[in-house]
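Input set for joint prediction.
Command: fold jointly, output tokens.
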Amino acid sequence: MSLLEVSDVTVRFGGITALADVTCSVESGEIFAIVGPNGAGKSTLFNLISRFCEPDSGDVRLNGRSLLDRAAADMAALGVARTFQNIDLFETSTVLQNLLIGRHARRQASFASQIVFSPAVRREEIAHREAAERIIDFLDLHAHREQRIAGLPYGTRKVVEVGRALAMEPRLVLLDEPASGLSPEEARDMRFWISDIRTELGITIVMVEHDMGLVSAVSDRVLVLAEGRVVALGTPAEVQSDPGVVQAFLGVGAEPEA
Amino acid sequence: MRVPFKTSHRHDIRLFADRYQALRYAALLTLAIALPFLLDDFMIGEVTGVLIWAIGGMGLMILTGHAGQISLGHAAFLAVGCYANVILMDRFGLPFPVSFTLAGIVAGLAGVLVAVPVFRLHGIYLAIATLALTMLVEDIIVLTEPWTGGVVGLTAPTITIAGMDVDRFSSPDRFYWLCLSITLLVTLAYCNILRAPLGRAFLAIRDSEASAQAMGVHVARTKAAAFGLSCLVTGWAGALLGHYFYTFNHEVFTVVVSIQLLLMIVIGGIGSIHGAFYGAFVVGVIPQAINISRDWVTAVLGTSGVAVPGLETGVFGLILVLFILFEPYGVHGRITKWKTYFELFPFYRRDLFRRQKSYLKTERIR
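tokens >
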């Protein structure tokens, strides 16, 4: 059974069909990339999986169980983490605090015990900090641990957002354009981290990305969307030679320049 | 700026950053406990007032400063706490500790009830909805005359704790210590919440609701918790305020009081516990300062008194405008900057505290 199954999903916003009968599945341990021109429905598919939008028809299943009756806030506990296309961190908090908010779904302390800050809460807080520290080690964020997000450069924020998703200890992480806006060196680091997330942490990755270099370097399979429809699905090499993909990106009858 | 070098996770969740900070607060607490021996009854009364407003300020600070939900209706919850406490003491003969606790819980539950229908509202719409609440409660107080005494109001009975009478007029020192201990408990609980997952959830929904949801924070539940806690504490402040005023009616809890609470936390420094105390101090001191300067102006000019109506409101408004323009983080922000200036001297830069956003989302109208 696949970890994530999207079957015959259609999403309409008024007169616009953002996704039309999209079907795909993500296997456990896979790096699955979604590419497509602007407005292809990539982000809609992401929002659908993380329950930020509702489908008009179709179903989304995680481990065979439908997600449609779950709220966006339930996804963290189910082991699905996500990042946002235009970084959405908690600006006034420090990096460490941001990672700790990522631990929210794993909290056990009751309301009352938090108010008196009982020894159990204290132990739990220390355990959360140890988990956050592992992420800081993993992503090399030591220098920024106590800094506020508002003062950090763009590239670092991008890494912190990935770290916050990892702090949730998810089974599946959805990365929305992890390399957009990064310098070539930062993008290269991100490439290594993405493959490390799979190999070292054993987390399945679904990502939206425009950087084809990154996509073909790390991903096992690529889904190409255009105007809400699946154009191609296969390994990066298969997809890049698909005539439908060339047409979607470059236009009808486009010939490679001589 | 001194940055404490943390060597363990335990260090990170301590209440005090280092031994010096702990000592400073211990000294402050000792001074606060000894204050009745140093000041006369009138001054102790004034300080008690500041403490009660600080409790109310902390109540609103949880909601507005930390959870990012604006409220112009907190006078209503002051009223609920105040009336509930006195009614429970008078009608049901409950001792003060019980009636006081229950009064807070009643106000807190009222807060949760309010949060459920308004939790989808943001910014100015939330402000308007909560503003209506204050007006509504004023009318309800007048209409439920058999319980609340209507326009005549109620008189707070003398508090008896462990056989000792605690009264605002006959034993102001004891009343001060009562208020001080409640202030301490509320402050401690507030600090605990801020270092626990709940406090982080509040910050999360303030900064980004979408992101908070992705982290597993249930926005509606967290807002309801913020409203509940906020109104619980505000209700306690209201209960103490009832004993502080001795007699009160619906006119005590007007929209102006709601606005004054909000001004308090903005002037004090939004988003910090310190801010609630600084704000309460400023709000407590300004009317006195205006009164004194009134006498002084009269004496200097020799005119028959400067009886300008609305002078206090005008001065308050002016101070608020100046703070929003020049120091959005209030007195607390200003003090932090001064401290940093001296700690870093001569390396302080003017832009050291410049942020990409100079305001919290609370203040932004969406």
